[in-house]
Automatic annotation (TrEMBL):
GO molecular function: thioredoxin-dependent peroxiredoxin activity
Keywords on record: Antioxidant, Oxidoreductase, Peroxidase
Top-rank taxon, per record: Eukaryota
Organism: Naganishia liquefaciens
Family: Belongs to the glutathione peroxidase family.
Catalytic residues of the enzyme: C70
GO process annotations (BP): cellular response to oxidative stress
Protein known as: Glutathione peroxidase
Keyword Membrane recorded: no
Length: 194
């Protein structure tokens, strides 16, 4: 990650902070940056339900921010195919529905799950709808961004269906932009599962 986007950087104030975030750099929470992947958790749909990343020790985890009304939404089928092809070998796919990009995930958690199941055959885990950028970003994406910069050395997630691959030992292998299809991840997944 470039030094200009490190999580230890002092908090920017006022307009400077606004502009800093708009160009793609964020002040990432220091406490999350200091955690291991296995210290993280994600809210699940429903009251007081959590997904603990510690449950995935020894597995390869693919994290994706998702949306149901996006040009990349057909990637759900590819993600489901990865889930089906590799789950018995140790791949876990987790979708994080997010409405921060063009309002393309407007539904509530129940509507999102129904759409994903009925229209795309999704049965991999979907977390509770959450932010992946900004002050209210979920801690999984904050952790990913603290480990590796994105396009142009910035930290922010640029659009729906960005992906991150986590190794069996809880290290970030890589971040992928939306244009990288699930099928194109197979070589990296195969290597991580080996």
């Amino acid at each position: 990650m470039s030094s200009s986007a490190t999580p230890s950087e002092p908090q920017q104030q006022g307009w400077a902070s606004y502009l800093w975030n708009k160009v793609g750099y964020e002040n990432l929470p220091q406490d999350v940056a200091n955690k291991s992947f296995y210290d993280l958790k994600a809210a699940l749909p429903g009251k007081d339900k959590w997904l603990n990343m510690a449950d995935f020790k020894g597995k390869v985890v693919l994290i994706v921010n998702t949306a149901s009304k996006c040009g990349f939404t057909p990637q759900y089928k590819g993600l489901q195919k990865l889930h089906e092809d590799y789950k018995d070998r140790g791949l876990v796919v987790i979708g994080f529905p997010c409405d921060q990009f063009g309002g393309q995930e407007p539904g509530n958690d129940e509507e999102i799950m129904q759409t994903c199941e009925l229209n795309h055959g999704v049965d991999f885990t979907l977390a509770k709808k959450s932010d992946v950028n900004g002050a209210n970003m979920n801690e999984v994406f904050a952790w990913i961004k603290s480990r590796k910069a994105s396009l142009g050395g910035t930290s922010t997630v640029k659009w729906n269906f960005e992906k991150a691959l986590i190794s069996k030992d809880g290290e970030l292998i890589n971040r992928y932009l939306s244009l990288k299809t699930p099928d194109a991840l197979r070589p990296d997944i195969e290597k991580a599962l080996a």
